[in-house]
C-alpha cells in the first residue's frame, strides 16, 4: 500500500425530494382533499475513523463523493425515503480542512469517531401541507432543498507515542525493525525511508507506538530533501528519540543540524521531550566511542544513550527511557491507541493505478 498523507476531494450531499401533488380518490368520497406527501431528506456525507488504515491512498483513485437524493413524496400522504448517506473512511489522525487548506473543520483522533461534513437537503412539502380553511384543495407543492457541496482537504498526521528523528542513515529504520514487527526498507544509502513507518514496541508488558520518518538534512524546513514533508507525523508524539550515528565524523554538528530543523519547523517540536542516543556504536572501538559520546553530550547538554540495533546493544534501556516519558506524559496511563503496526508497502513499478 503506497503512502499518501494529503488529498483533495469534492463532496455533495443529496438534494431533498420534491413534495407530491395528489388528491384522495376513493369510491363514495366526492371531495377527498389533498393527500400529497412530503419529499424525503437527501443523504448526508460523513467521515468516519476506522482501524487498519494508515494512509489516504484510496482518495487518489476517488475524489468525488455524492450522496443520494431523497425520494419524492407520494399520494396517501406518504413521505419519501431519505437518500443514502456516503461515508469517507479515514485513518486515525486525519484532519479535515476547508478548500483554503487552512481552516480546520475537524481533527479526528479516535477510532470510531464520526462527523457530518455535509447535511442533505430537506424534502419539499406535499400539497397536503398547504391545506387550510381558505384553500381546501391546494394544487402546489414545494421542491426539495439543494444539498451542500464543497471541496475539502484531508491531511493525515499519524498518531504515535514516540517519534524517531535524525539524519539519513542514522539507524532509525533498523531500530524500528528491531524493537517492533514493522518491516521498513533498510539499505546503506541516504533516504532509504521514503515515507513514515509505524510499529508497536513492547517493554516490561507495556506497549507504545513508534513512528519512523525519513531523515532530515540541513535546509529541510525550506524544502531540501524529503524529511520536512513528514515532520507533521511526529507533531502528536509525546517524545522524540533523536538518533545520531556514530559513523558521523562530527556527531555534535549532526545533532545540531537536526535540532535546528526541528526548531525551524515549529509545530510544537521545539519544546517536545527528547531522548538523545548515539547509534550504530558497534562500528567504533572503545576509545573512539568515549570521544564521540563526550562530543555529543557537549552538544545536547546531557549524556546520550549508547545503542546499536544491529548488535542489540542498549535497546532495552532506550525502550524503557521512552516508556517512562510516555507514561509520565499520559497521566497514568497506558496508551489506548489501537495497533496500527501494519507495514506500508510500496506499489510495484508496473501498478497501473499510479
From TrEMBL:
- Look up the domain of life of the source: Bacteria
Q: Which residues bind GTP?
A: 166-173, 191-195, 212-215, 279-282, 308-310
A GO MF term: GTPase activity
The cofactors required by this protein are: Mg(2+)
**Methyltransferase is among the record's keywords:** no
Give the start-end ranges of region Disordered.
Answer: 333-354
Query: Coiled-coil segments, which residues?
Result: none
Q: What is its main location?
A: cytoplasm
Q: Which residues bind Mg(2+)?
A: 173, 193
Q: Name the HAMAP family for this protein.
A: GTPase_Obg
Q: Say what the protein does.
A: An essential GTPase which binds GTP, GDP and possibly (p)ppGpp with moderate affinity, with high nucleotide exchange rates and a fairly low GTP hydrolysis rate. Plays a role in control of the cell cycle, stress response, ribosome biogenesis and in those bacteria that undergo differentiation, in morphogenesis control.
- Subunit organization: Monomer.
Instruction: From the Swiss-Prot or TrEMBL record, give the protein name.
Output: GTPase Obg
Annotated source species:
Rhizobium rhizogenes (Agrobacterium rhizogenes)
What's the gene? obgE
Amino acid at each position: 500500500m503506497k503512502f499518501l498523507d494529503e488529498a483533495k476531494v469534492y463532496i455533495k450531499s443529496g438534494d431533498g425530494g420534491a413534495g407530491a401533488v395528489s388528491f384522495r380518490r376513493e369510491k363514495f368520497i366526492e371531495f377527498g382533499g389533498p393527500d400529497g406527501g412530503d419529499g424525503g431528506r437527501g443523504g448526508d456525507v460523513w467521515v468516519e475513523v476506522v482501524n487498519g488504515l494508515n494512509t489516504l491512498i484510496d482518495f487518489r483513485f476517488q475524489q468525488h463523493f455524492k450522496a443520494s437524493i431523497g425520494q419524492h413524496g407520494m399520494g396517501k400522504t406518504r413521505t419519501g425515503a431519505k437518500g443514502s448517506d456516503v461515508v469517507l473512511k479515514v485513518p486515525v489522525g486525519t484532519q479535515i480542512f476547508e478548500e483554503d487548506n487552512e481552516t480546520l473543520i475537524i481533527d479526528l483522533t479516535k477510532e470510531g469517531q464520526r462527523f457530518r461534513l455535509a447535511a442533505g437537503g430537506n424534502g419539499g412539502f406535499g400539497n397536503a401541507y398547504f391545506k387550510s380553511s381558505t384553500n381546501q384543495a391546494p394544487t402546489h407543492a414545494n421542491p426539495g432543498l439543494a444539498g451542500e457541496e464543497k471541496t475539502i482537504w484531508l491531511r493525515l498526521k499519524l498518531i504515535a507515542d514516540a517519534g524517531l528523528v535524525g539524519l539519513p542513515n542514522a539507524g532509525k529504520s533498523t531500530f524500528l525493525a528491531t524493537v517492533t514487527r514493522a518491516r521498513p526498507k533498510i539499505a546503506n544509502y541516504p533516504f532509504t525511508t521514503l515515507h513514515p513507518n509505524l510499529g508497536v514496541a513492547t517493554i516490561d508488558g507495556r506497549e507504545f507506538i513508534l513512528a519512523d520518518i525519513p531523515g532530515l538534512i540541513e535546509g529541510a524546513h525550506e524544502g531540501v530533501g524529503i524529511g520536512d514533508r513528514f515532520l507533521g507525523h511526529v507533531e502528536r508524539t509525546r517524545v522524540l528519540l533523536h538518533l545520531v550515528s556514530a559513523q558521523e565524523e562530527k556527531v555534535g554538528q549532526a545533532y545540531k543540524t537536526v535540532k535546528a530543523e526541528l526548531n525551524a519547523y515549529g509545530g510544537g517540536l521545539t519544546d517536545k521531550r527528547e531522548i538523545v542516543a548515539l547509534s550504530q556504536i558497534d562500528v567504533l572501538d572503545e576509545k573512539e566511542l568515549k570521544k564521540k559520546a563526550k562530543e555529543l553530550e557537549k552538544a545536547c547538554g546531557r549524556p546520550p544513550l549508547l545503542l546499536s540495533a544491529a548488535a542489540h546493544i542498549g535497546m532495552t534501556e532506550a525502550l524503557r527511557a521512552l516508556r517512562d516519558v510516555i507514561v509520565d506524559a499520559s497521566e497514568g496511563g497506558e496508551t489506548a491507541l489501537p495497533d496500527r503496526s501494519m507495514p506500508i508497502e510500496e506499489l510495484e513499478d508496473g501498478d497501473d493505478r499510479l
